[in-house]
Specification:
This protein is of the alpha/beta class. It has four domains: about 200 residues, P-loop containing nucleotide triphosphate hydrolases (Rossmann fold, 3-Layer(aba) Sandwich); about 150 residues, 3-Layer(aba) Sandwich (Rossmann fold); about 60 residues, no CATH class; about 90 residues, Alpha-Beta Plaits (2-Layer Sandwich), CATH 3.30.70. The chain contains 21 helices and 20 strands. The strands form four sheets. The chain has a seven-stranded parallel beta sheet with strand order 3-4-2-5-6-1-7, sandwiched between helices. It has a seven-stranded parallel beta sheet with strand order 10-11-9-12-13-8-14, with helices on both faces. A four-stranded antiparallel beta sheet has the order 16-17-15-20, covered by helices on one side. Strand 10, helix 12 and strand 11 form a beta-alpha-beta unit. Helix 2 runs parallel beside helix 3, helix 6 packs across helix 8 and helix 14 packs across helix 15.
Length: about 575
């Protein structure tokens, strides 16, 4: 078995790794570190989040730094502030015994002037988000013309967030003879495009199977009626007493609603979405990392770049539209060799999506049954008994209290005492789940086919009625918007019921959307001056773009009935 000593890295780095408890390299580290140290060649590495990528590129970069030169020699680009901070912190931890190495995290949402001051004092490694680094370049406050290494960390995430132009601008200021290292969880067309444009004959390394899900993650799905999705979520959470999970929702509104319901029902939960200020976001993440929160309800955009260890579960309250987004979600558990579970809550019409994901990630899903109330009570009791059995008794403190307690309970026999103990701890669960209905939907292929035929017929019969107007918006992929985000915004329009939606086309900084003409005024009012991921939205009707042609109609009515 290899150890870090086999790579020939310095004693100072080995000392830092030892102090962190790192002795055996992960598979991605074993493949990448020798290649970067020995061959000085461009590299594309496909590996899931949590497999040790930071050390894979960070250790050889630190080893190659000229400590006497205080100018930037390595640049690491990250999609989000959280990942940027985490990578910089990890590099500082690895190099704690390397004297003279300076690492700087450059990101938005904090003082640019403090970052400028640090740059002026001299740094060798810059870890940056594209937006803030471009700002510094435009101000001529950073010089990256001498960097010898450029690393794209989570390259697929950066492209999904619309950073292509920023990456082009940054790389135009770097030397042609640099080494470029690209790390990504998936090999999308866009990631392959980066490799073609910015790299020279890159070596491709794959840890695990190409575009596959994380090795240590088990994939499960529960089939329920859409109206029972939240009830099923609570049962799944209750059936795992030690759960520590991110719950993914499609829209900001759904994220807020699910988190609010969980909090109201007594769970340690909070929401993370794009409309939170940076201070609010930092506070939520601090509580979650400290485990003051058990459940974090988040959108895909808000959760990008989060680096949280020891997650037991990822729960897909809704499946994402993009299969690669599922790969990123599920990869947030089962990290660093630990096991994890990715759960999807689906209804009958979504069963085909499971097969699509299975094909993409090369993993099979297990269909599970939503537990009954009695099963949950048994699981909760077993968990509590494990805690009781595992408690260390401090006899010096307990013995003085034992006699009066034993005397007060002396009239109870063993069986009666156990029953009272169970009732005290579990009356809430027993009462809540008394006569609780079965939430499972029978997976009947013929029933599913009939439902699909009925849905298709219904769409064909109604799509041509009414007229569609085309709307133009000034937000797009760069702001993290997708079709589901536009549909979610329409769902928030009060008092209109179902609005039929036609074609949606998302570009980098703009979007076009077709919707029923009779709701034009309400749609304009809903979007005009709203904020999406920090950008004020403007919307207008595209002149002459009104159609009565039959077209597929998207579901826009995902709201629940009020109880």
């Amino acid at each position: 078995m290899k150890s870090f000593e086999n790579f020939g890295i310095s004693d100072q780095l080995l000392q830092g790794l030892s102090s962190l408890g790192f002795t055996t390299p992960t598979p991605v580290q074993s493949k990448v570190i020798p290649l970067v140290l020995e061959k000085q060649q461009d590299l594309v590495a496909l590996a899931q989040t949590g497999t040790g990528k930071t050390a894979a590129f960070g250790l050889p970069l630190i080893e190659r730094i000229d400590l006497k030169n205080r100018k930037p020699q390595a640049l690491i680009l990250c999609p989000t502030r959280e990942l940027c901070v985490q990578v910089a912190r990890d590099l500082q931890d690895f190099s704690r015994f390397v004297k003279g190495l300076k690492v700087l995290a450059v990101y938005g949402g904090t003082s640019i002037y403090e970052q400028i001051k640090t740059l002026q004092r001299g740094v060798q490694i810059i870890v940056a988000t594209p937006g803030r680094l471009n700002d510094l370049i435009r101000r001529e406050k950073v010089n990256i013309s001498g960097v010898r290494y450029v690393v794209f960390d989570e390259a697929d995430e950066m492209l999904q967030m619309g950073f292509q132009d920023e990456l082009n601008a940054i790389l135009s200021h770097t030397p042609a003879d640099k080494n470029t290292l690209l790390f990504s969880a998936t090999m999308s067309k866009e990631v392959a495009g980066i490799a073609r444009r910015y790299m020279t004959d890159p070596v491709e390394l794959t840890c695990g199977k190409r575009n596959a899900g994380a090795e240590n993650v088990t994939h499960e799905y529960y089939m329920v009626h859409a109206k029972n999705r939240y009830l099923a979520l609570k049962r799944i959470v209750d059936n795992h007493p030690g759960i520590y999970s991110i719950i993914f929702c499609r829209t900001r509104l759904e994220t807020s609603n699910v988190a609010a319901k969980l909090i109201q029902d007594g769970y340690n939960a909070d929401a993370l979405h794009g409309e939170l200020s940076q201070a609010q976001r930092d506070q939520v993440m601090k509580k979650f990392r400290q485990r003051s929160l058990q459940l974090l309800v988040a959108t895909d955009v808000a959760a990008r770049g989060l680096d949280v260890n020891d997650l037991t579960h990822v729960i897909n309250y809704n499946l994402p539209d993009d299969v690669s987004a599922y790969t990123h979600r599920s990869g947030r558990t089962g990290r660093a060799g630990r096991g994890g579970i990715s759960i999807a809550l689906i209804h009958m019409k979504e069963k085909y999506r499971i097969a699509q994901i299975e094909k993409r990630i090369n993993r099979k899903f297990k269909q599970c049954k939503v537990p009954t109330g009695m099963e949950i009570c048994r699981r909760q009791l077993a968990g509590m008994l494990e805690e009781v059995i595992g408690v260390d008794v401090d006899h010096d403190q307990i013995d003085p209290l034992y006699a009066p307690v034993a005397e007060q309970l002396a009239h109870l026999d063993r069986e009666e005492l156990i029953k009272k103990f169970i009732s005290l701890e579990f009356n809430r669960f027993l009462s809540y789940y008394k006569d609780a209905p079965d939430l499972n939907v029978r997976d009947d292929g013929r029933k599913q086919q009939r439902l699909g035929d009925k849905q298709k017929k219904s769409r064909q019969g109604t799509a041509g009625h009414g007229r569609f107007t085309r709307f133009a918006l000034n937000v797009g992929r760069r702001q993290g918007i997708g079709p589901e985000g536009l549909i979610g915004k329409i769902n928030e329009i009060p008092g209109v019921g179902r609005i039929k939606i036609g074609k949606i086309n998302i570009k980098r900084n703009s979007a076009h959307m077709e919707a029923e003409t009779k709701f034009t005024a309400q749609i304009l009012a809903a979007f005009q001056h709203a904020e999406i991921n920090g950008k004020t939205v403007s919307i207008e009707v595209v002149p002459g773009a009104v159609s009565s042609r039959k077209r597929p109609v998207r579901k826009s009515n995902t709201r629940r009935r009020r109880r």
